[in-house]
Structures are given as C-alpha cells and as structure tokens.
Amino acid sequence: MPARLRSVLVRLHRWIGLTIALFLVVTGLTGSVLAFREPLDRWLNPELFVVPIERGGAPLPLAMLAQRIERALPEAEPIFLPLHLGPGQSMPLVMRPRPGATMPLGYNQAFFDPHDGSLLGTRDSGASLFERRTTVGFLYRLHRQLALPAVWGSLVLGIVSMLWTIDSLTGFALTLPIRSNGKARKSWWHRWRTAWTVKSPASAARRTLDLHRAGGLWLWGMLIIFGWSSVMLSMEPVYRAVMSRIVSFDEPRRSLPIIAPEKRDIRLGWQDALAAGRDLLPEAAARYGFTPGHESELALDRNRNLYIYYVRSDRDIRDEGGSTGLFIDARTGGLLAVSLPSKPGAAGNAFTQWMYGLHMAQVFGFPYRLFIAAFGLVVAGLSVTGVLIWRTKSRRRRNREMSASILVKRSYADG
Question: Which contiguous run of DSSP H or E holds residue 169?
C-alpha cells in the first residue's frame, strides 16, 4: 500500500471508528446475550412459554383457537398463528389492533394454551429492562433500534451499519504492509504475518494495538457479514439497491400489490385458509420442485388481502421454522404465488436468507450460537481497544507538541 493512501485510510478508519464505537459496544454486548434470546426468555418467563406436558393430546382446531383468541382479546388480532408446537410449548402470538379499534392495545404479544385456548398472559415485549417479562424484549429493542422509536432507531443503526462495513474494509487494508522500495529483506507475506499475531512480551499500548489488529483480521469475514447484514436489517432499501445490481431476487411479497383499504375483502377464516394451504401444497411442491416437511405458521397480510401458509421444505436454509410460503388469496382461496428461500435463478433469495440466519444465529445449531455470543463480546472489545489506541496516540502527540513548544521557548530565551 502506498504511504499516502495509507495516511488517508488511517484518518478514515480512526474517525469512523470513534463515531460508531459506542453503538458497536451496545449492539455487540446485547447481541451476545440475544444469541440465546428464546431459551433465555423461556427461562425467565415459564408462565408464558410453558404449559403442563401431562395435558397431552392435540391442540384445538385452528378455528376454535381463533375464536378463543378473539373472545379473550376482542380488541386485537394475531399477525400469524404457529402450526408447529413442541410438547409443553405455549402458543406465542404477535398481536396488532383489530381493524376498527380506536384504543391502543398496551401490549404486542399474547400467549395462549393451545390445548384449551386459555390466555396465559400478555406483554409489551420491549417495555422495560427491569421487568422480568420484558427484559429480553427490551434488549432486543435496544439491539435493533437503540430503544428509540422504530423509524429513528432504524435510521441511526442503518447509518452506523454502513459506516461499520466501510470501517471493516479500511481496517483490513491498514493491516497490509506498506509498499516496499524494492530493498526490503523480508517478503511481503512475512511482513504481513506480524499483523496476525499479538507480540509478547510487549508494552500495554503495543498489546492493545496487536489485539485490535489481529482480532479484526482473524474475524474480518464475520465483521463484513455482520456489518452488511445489519444494513439489510436496518436500512433495507440501501441493501436492495446494492444487491439487486449483483444478484436476482424472486420475492412475491414485494411484487404483489398493496390493496386499498376499501377494497380489502378477507372472506376466508383461519381454518379455511389453512385448509386451502393444505390442499394447494402438493401441486405447488410438484410445480416448483420442493419437498415439503412440517407446517410452520399461517400469517395474515391484510394489506395485500392474502394469507401466507409457511412450511418447512428442502429449500429452507435457516434452522428454525419454515420459510417456504404459499400466498393464498383471502377472498377465493386460490394460489397467488410461492416464495422459496433458495431458488435457481434467484441467488438473492438464498443470500438474504444466509445473511439473516448468520446474523440471528439461526444456522449451524448450538455451536454457532456459542460462537455468536463470543463474537458479540469481540465486537465490543474491538471498539474499546480502538478508542484506547486513539487515546494513547493522542496523548503522545500532545506530549510531543508540548516538548517542541518548550524547546522553542527555551531557544528564544537563550537567543
């Protein structure tokens, strides 16, 4: 690397790093905890997530469950209904105001016993760090939007994510050796190899520099992945604008039009939509070339006047749930489209699924969750060491300037 270019990159890396350091410390530490978000939430709130296993038997029919939900919470409706629950697992629902409701709900999640439809409890998931029911949800809101209103939090973190991606690229470039004048005794690789190691013994300042540089190098690929996936999650239009120039996407939910409120016509109930999905699945699987597994969930999209019947299939990438979706007309029960997580000719679908799965620790099972928990701590540590390096260099620079000033004053006094 030419010395002049290196000087520019040093300044860029320094000021971007200082700008986003606090944000990365917050998101790194919260992300470390959230790698185990679901089991931690279940451990803290068993009264919401666990029902007695001895009840056994099959859950109530979906139509009956929907009636019990409406009876218990007439002012709200679920966004989706889970179709695949394990033994002793409650039915967690994300809730929104029912059309025509005028009062705010005061909660956004509800939990039901799938065997009898009884309400186990509700909560505003991100309300407070200091309430047991909402601790994990608050950490998630802090991680995703800095506990700010969604629009502002996403905007701030979207900008931070783009800066983080740029900073990771410049940080990598700064580890490369300065261009040799042709008389260097050591090879390029031998000179770069130093950047991958932590010198010992060494001063505290040197160890801090080595930890920052070597840690960033060894995990550089993950830093890029998490920086860019953070852009995807917080500032999706930017992500789409860039990725659509590189790969193709085939996502029906984006291509299907939003229906004007006065033209929406939800004729099918939850049970009818489920029956339609089950009837349409064999033909859709044969036509689109996927092998279906278990049902995952049934979602209602009022804006587009449709239901989405999600199943697990051999096209899925993430560990949990099912991302293969059948889009069903909520008026006629006909098939509108099929969404596949991975599809020939639409590499963007698979790339996005991988980005999401890697960021949310939903691939490679429990070992990867452990890795992400440690990675979050490393991200926070890299930010802290970066600030320490800047502070040390600033202090040395001030000391040199003070020494130079004293020398100048002495020369004038002697002269």
Answer: helix 150-175
Q: What is the pLDDT of residue 410?
A: 66
Q: How far apart are CA 122 and CA 115, in angstroms?
A: 18
Of 17-26, 320-329, 353-362, 404-413, the least confident: 404-413
**Residue 385: closest CA among 204, 169, 158, 176:** 204
C-alpha distances out from residue 350 to 341, 343, 353, Å:
6, 7, 5
pLDDT at 88 over 70: yes
Instruction: Tell me which H or E stretch contains 122.
Output: strand 119-123
Is the Cβ–Cβ distance between 326 and 297 less than 8 Å? no
The span from the CA of 237 to the CA of 163, in Å, is: 16
Q: Which two tokens stand for residue 59?
A: 């859950």
Q: Residue 387 pLDDT > 70, yes or no? A: yes
Q: What is the pLDDT of residues 277-291, one digit of tens each?
A: 999 999 999 999 999
> What letters, b where the CB count within 10 A reaches 16 and e where it falls short, cover 380-393?
bbbbbbbbbbeebe
**Cβ within 8 Å of residue 194, ≥6 positions away:** none
pLDDT score of 183 more than 90: no
Burial level of 361, CB count in 10 A (0-12/13-18/19+)? Answer: buried
Question: Could you tell me whether strands 91-97 and 109-112 are parallel, antiparallel, or unpaired per DSSP bridges?
Answer: antiparallel
CB atoms within 10 A of CB 224: 15
Can you give the pTM of this predicted structure? 0.92
Closest to 385 measured CA to CA, from 199, 208, 259, 196: 208
Q: Is 14 helix (H, G, I), strand (E, B) or coil?
A: helix
Structure tokens at 230: 């953070």
Q: Three-class SS of residue 318?
A: coil
- Which residue has better confidence, 201 or 414? 201
Type and span of the H or E element at 296: strand 292-301
In percent, the amount of the chain with pLDDT more than 90 equals 80
Taking the C-alpha atoms of residue 70 and residue 403, their distance in angstroms, rounded to an integer, is 76
What is the C-alpha separation between 162 and 168, in angstroms, rounded?
10
Euclidean distance between the first and the last CA atom of the chain, given in angstroms as a whole number:
44
Task: Give the contacts of 228 (CB within 8 A, at least 6 positions apart).
Answer: 161, 165, 239, 355
